[in-house]
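Example protein
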Amino acid sequence: MQTLWLAAVAILVAVTSPLCAQERPPRPLEAHDVKIPPYEIRTLPNGLRVVVVSQHEQPAVSLRMLVKAGSAQDPAGKPGVAAMVGGLLDQGTARQSSEQISDIIDYVGGALGSGAGTDLSYANILVLKDRFDFALDLMADVVRTPSFPQEELDRVRTQALSAMSVNMQDPEFVADAVIDRLVYGFHPYGLPGNGTPESLTSVTRNDLVQFHKAWFSPNNALLAVVGDVNVEEAFAGVTRAFGDWQPHDPPAMPPAEVPEPTRRVVLVDRPNSIQTEIRAGHVAIQRNHPDYMALNLATKILGGEGANRLQNVLRSEKGLTYGASADMDAYKLTGSIIAETDTQTSTTGEALRLTVDEFWRLVREPVGDRELMGAQAYLAGSFPLSIETADDIALQVLNLLFFDLDVKELATYRDRINAVTSADIQRVAKQFVKPGRLSIVLVGDARQVLPQLKAVGVDNVEVLPLADLDLTSPSLRRKVAVPSQAPGR
């Protein structure tokens, strides 16, 4: 019995010791060898760049088209146009109605989708091999001759307005939307890609037609053909379906100034909230910047997979949250680094202070080998998952082409990750991370949060009632119409 009691005490001491209380991730597994399937890239005479990846394991073919225009190309004053164009590409064409398209893709057992993002619009089709020519014809019809039926536009508009109303009651959505607006200012990346109630209400069918006419052309698009099809068969099919698509130059966009990192603190008031959403970040670099890899690893160390200082401090050491992270978004023209977490209302000030402290520590202190190796091991180890299928390979190649990068980078990805040193991390942190100029957004109960912010030295806080929020206003505050006075008064 005494032996059993001593063993139990030893186990209890081990479990409750400070070392075991720390959440230590397991050591990474050895990286698997990566074999990249062969692919071929050609450009049609009309400028359409085509990537073909042959993969004969399954009798299916996937088509992916990217058009280099998204919400960043929305007409002035009308955010949401690109999103509507993307959503309606497959909802009716010059030859087929929405119902006919839906019925025929179901009949052949395929899948069809379309949409838009920040820098691009897209359409995807997946069919069995024997329907390859059908898929090419349908893709050409959807991308080249969408009809944007008024009834479909009205339906999509109603759905978007309803979703927007629901989203504005979600503190996470509000925090994300406001931090993007603060970080990017009035650069197109800072405006709501899905539009605002006012802009969506004003969008007309002609707006969609003009956007499509301006930006959808073969010399402004990329197409991937992936699956059980040989290279020559694929290029012959693409030439047949898209060879007569006439090219034209896309519009010359006026240069949009990327704002410098600017300190601004906005507290969106949600009375009686039991927790606070916290965001902190600033503008960073575009995807094809030569320091992208090093700054991406630095961000992983701050709050990403493989290291995550924010998670270690805010959750493991202080128990202030269930999760904390930092992400680097890198777009065509610029990018951002944004940290996010949530915490109980009563601990908002402490959580914000610790978050900002970690930005400062990344700049001031060299990164240790263990943290760097952890971030590198995660990126290198997860890379095979991103090229697991032929479709994944095609997507990776399309992304490299879209961002004007060398496709050969795919084969050297791991080597470039492991070549980054601690000195590189400190260099890019000092150059691009600006803790003193962080934009900060909090969504919570202002009455309880404001005193905490003052206690941790955060001043010049703009308090904004949620009902007054307007992302298109410089002040972020909705303008209140002033009633005109009657004559003679």
Q: What stands out?
A: The chain has two domains: 40-242, 264-468. The radius of gyration is 26 Å. The chain has a mean pLDDT of 90. The first helix runs from residue 2 to 16.
